[in-house]
């Protein structure tokens, strides 16, 4: 989570936001954003929540809906998945309208 949110994800988030801005400018009536991501790994959990917070800063009056895949010990036994999910849920509560 930390790599995706603070280091590697932070290096990429501006490029991703440029693409989001271009898409938003092409819309006639932008109502909001839908984000689909996983909460178990670093990219969806760390960078995903960073991207959501940055979009919220730039478009505070638009709807933010997230569709999150939650980790399960029946599917994967990666040790850090519960930590990634826990850290991500806090960000989702703060920055999304629907999760």
Automatic annotation (TrEMBL):
Any GO molecular function: GTP binding
GO biological process: microtubule-based process
Annotated ranges, domain Tubulin/FtsZ GTPase: 1-99
Coiled-coil stretches: none
Subcellular location: Cytoplasm, Cytoskeleton
Main function: Tubulin is the major constituent of microtubules, a cylinder consisting of laterally associated linear protofilaments composed of alpha- and beta-tubulin heterodimers. Microtubules grow by the addition of GTP-tubulin dimers to the microtubule end, where a stabilizing cap forms. Below the cap, tubulin dimers are in GDP-bound state, owing to GTPase activity of alpha-tubulin.
Family: Belongs to the tubulin family.
Protein name according to UniProt: Tubulin beta chain
Species assigned in the record: Botrytis fabae
């Amino acid at each position: 989570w930390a790599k995706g949110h603070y280091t590697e994800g932070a290096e990429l988030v501006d490029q991703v936001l440029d693409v989001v801005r271009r898409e938003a400018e092409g819309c006639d009536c932008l109502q909001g954003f839908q984000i689909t991501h996983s909460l178990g790994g670093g990219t969806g959990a760390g960078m995903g929540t960073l991207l959501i917070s940055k979009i919220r800063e730039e478009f505070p009056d638009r709807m933010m809906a997230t569709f999150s895949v939650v980790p399960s010990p029946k599917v994967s036994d990666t040790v850090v998945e519960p930590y990634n999910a826990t850290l991500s849920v806090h960000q989702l509560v703060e920055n999304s309208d629907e999760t």
